[in-house]
Amino acid sequence: MKNYRYLILRRLTQITLMVLYIGANVWGWKMLRGNLSTSSILGTIPLSDPYAVIQIAVTGASLGMDILLGALIVTLFYGVIGGRAFCSWVCPINIITDTAAWLRRALKFSEVQKRFYMSRSLRYWILGLSLILSALMGVAAFELISPISMAHRGLIFGMGMGGGALVVIFLFDLLVHENGWCGYVCPLGATYSLIGKFSLIRVFHDAEKCTDCRSCITVCPEKEVLHMINRSSESVLMGECTNCGRCVDVCQEDALGFSIRSFTKQPKDEE
Amino acid sequence: MSTKTPNDRRRFLLSIARGIGLSAMGALVWSAYVGEVKAAPLVLRPPGALDEAEFIKNCIKCGLCVEACPYDTLILARPGDNLPIGTPFFTPRSVPCYMCTDIPCVPVCPSGALNEPSVSSYVKNKAVLDINKSRMGLAVVDESSCIAMWGIQCDACYRACPLLGEAITIETSKNERTGKHAFLKPVVHADVCTGCGMCEHACVTEIAAIHILPRALAMGKVGDHYIKGWDKADEKRLEGASIEVTKTKMSEKSALDSLNDEGGL
Ligand code: SF4
Ligand code: SF4
Ligand code: SF4
Ligand code: SF4
Ligand code: SF4
Fold first, then answer.
1. Which residues face A192 on adjacent strands?
2. pLDDT for the residue B243
């Protein structure tokens, strides 16, 4: 089972959180109420989506104390453990896009399909655009179209037609572009990339042990972050890494593992 | 720096230009959609909600108000409801607001979109929640479909109102058609009605003859230039009011003079 350790842990975390949220609405559990936009732990500690709060802030709204504090707590948390850990350990869309990516690999779509060009920085453009639109239109612009909130709210409060957005994302990732949504488009993931830039928990690559089988690069949803594979022993430092641990799972040689980032010395081979 | 060829620079500038072009296109579609859903004004918000424009700025769509409501009155707008997605609203004909005295839905709001002071009164300098101050909407009677206006006895809305006798009163008048009966006409008082929708929920007609509209839609506005001369409090507005006189070429002289001078009369 070693090959699936982190995958299973992640799915368990994602599903447990979901069950707690649903339980709060259906059976009145107190543990975790609300949804991923803002929740409250045991009715006392607020948690807020920092991206949603920034969008609200630029509309010129007065901002309640609870959501400010909530956004601060969440930012500090992911700032330490790795920003996009949100993506792979919490976000419900991740289950859909991982499934699409897996199916795409199994059906060998990427080998036959000519890749059309999409820039990895598209998501940062969308992030910037969403803030400009929020300011101009006086309402949090991405929150009105976000399939992430739609999915999450849908699971807790009733889906309506929201299921459609999820199907679209699945088909986009499956048929149009590998890791298309999470790897190129989603501005929430982009926000967490920025938040996690200096986080402490990092994947470390030991080039000595690497046999260059490239299994890690095959499964990684953000392949660019693994540029050091078989070249130099160093930590995966790019903020786009989701700390999903799939690379660690699939590496047979133990050349990848989680470690604490060291600020003093960054072991690097000669260039 | 020196390794950059003019072509590199052109490629770089072009890629920025392409980004800007695509963004502008995306912005157009995106803002059109946002504008569309924002414009849906026919929506009733929970007690204590800020004005609609401020409300949709502030609400973070967490659903904590929805979870706090014991009657399942509140719903978060779903895709397909054609309302700003994820924001809470209620439909009084299905489930009205029962005007809980402890208003559980308001204090839980983390964003301030539901404003506690607006539904609080001060008793001995202490703020206490007061649901009667909420203004979720206003009940409006459609006289053509209200059967009380036909002379049939019905006071379902009057009886259902939590502010019975204050928000709705019954006005009687003679039914000339029968000559011996009375009309019992429900009259809503906008200064008391909270818009809870208990009346709409109770109304016996097929489609409710009394229904809740958002206040911004249901109400007019007199403006500053009318004053109730018989009302002491309203008279006060005159104190310190300044008189503004507009002078035009015609009004320089007295009205009579300027008419006489007009010529050709
Ligand atoms: S990139 Fe966006 S949709 Fe994908 S997992 Fe992260 S937050 Fe969720
Ligand atoms: S580098 Fe490893 S942990 Fe990071 S995203 Fe890729 S597979 Fe996941
Ligand atoms: S006052 Fe009571 S019934 Fe009305 S919306 Fe709030 S919790 Fe629900
Ligand atoms: S509790 Fe406040 S922020 Fe949350 S959904 Fe209700 S009104 Fe919006
Ligand atoms: S909405 Fe109807 S029931 Fe509620 S306070 Fe107004 S008149 Fe009374």
1. none
2. 72
Of A34, A159, A164, the CB nearest to B62: A34
pLDDT reported for residue A269: 44
The secondary structure of residue A185, as a DSSP letter, is I
List, for residues B252-264, the tens digit of each pLDDT value: 777 777 677 766 6
Q: Between A60, A67, A164, which is nearest B111 by CB?
A: A67
Of all protein residues, the one whose alpha carbon is nearest to atom 4 of ligand 5 is B196
Ligand 3 mutation pick, B66, B94, B95, B99, max ligand atoms within 8 A of CB: B99
pLDDT of A271 reads 37
C-beta atoms of B34 and A139 within 8 A: yes
Pick out chain A residues at pLDDT < 70: 1-2, 115, 263-271
Q: Cα angle at B34 between B30 and B35, to 5 degrees? A: 115
Report pLDDT for A83: 80
Beta-carbon contacts of residue B38 (< 8 Å; ≥ 6 apart) = A137, A138, A139, B56, B84
The amino acid at residue B244 is E
B205 touches chain A (CB under 8 A): no
pLDDT at B209: 96
Write out pLDDT tens, residues B172-213: 999 888 888 999 999 999 999 999 999 999 999 999 999 999
Level-2 CATH architecture, domain B52-133: 2-Layer Sandwich (3.30)
Instruction: Tell me which of A29, A62, A126, A136 to substitute to probe the interface with B (most B C-beta atoms closer than 10 Å).
Output: A62
Nearest atom (ligand 1) to Cα of A123: 1
Q: Give the orientation angle of helix A65-81 with respect to helix A50-58, to 10 degrees.
A: 140
Q: What is the pTM of this model?
A: 0.84
Interface of B with A in 100-159 (CB under 8 A): 108-113
Angle at B89 between CA B209 and CA A36, to 5 degrees: 165
Residue nearest to atom 4 of ligand 4 (CA): B62
| All structural domains of chain B with their residue ranges | 52-133, 138-217
Cβ of A87 below 6 Å from ligand 2: no
Q: Cβ separation of A149 and B86 shorter than 8 Å?
A: yes
Q: Which ligand neighbours the alpha carbon of B161 most closely?
A: 5
Q: Return the structure tokens found at B225.
A: 């230039």
Q: Do domains B52-133 and B138-217 have the same CATH topology?
A: yes
**ipTM given for this complex:** 0.86
**Residues of A with CB below 8 A from B66's CB?**
25, 157
What percent of chain B lies above the pLDDT cut of 70? Answer: 94
Phi, psi (5° rounding) for residue B169? -120, 165
CATH for B138-217 (3.10.310.10, 3.40.1360.10, 3.30.110.40, 3.30.70.20): 3.30.70.20
**Residue the block writes with tokens 């350990």:** A89
Full set of structural domains in chain A with CATH: 2-194 (no CATH), 201-270 (3.30.70.20)
- Is the separation of the CB atoms in A210 and A146 below 8 Å? no
